[in-house]
Amino acid sequence: MDWMFLPYKRYADFSGRSTRKEYWLFTAFVLLVTIGLIVLMVAGGFNLDASNGSDRFSGSSALETVALVGLIVFWLGTIIPNLAVTVRRFHDRDMSGWWVLGFGILSRIPVLGWIATIAQLVILALPGIAGANRFGADPRDPLNVNVFS
Question: Which residue range forms the structural domain that includes residue 113?
Answer without folding.
Answer: 2-50+59-125
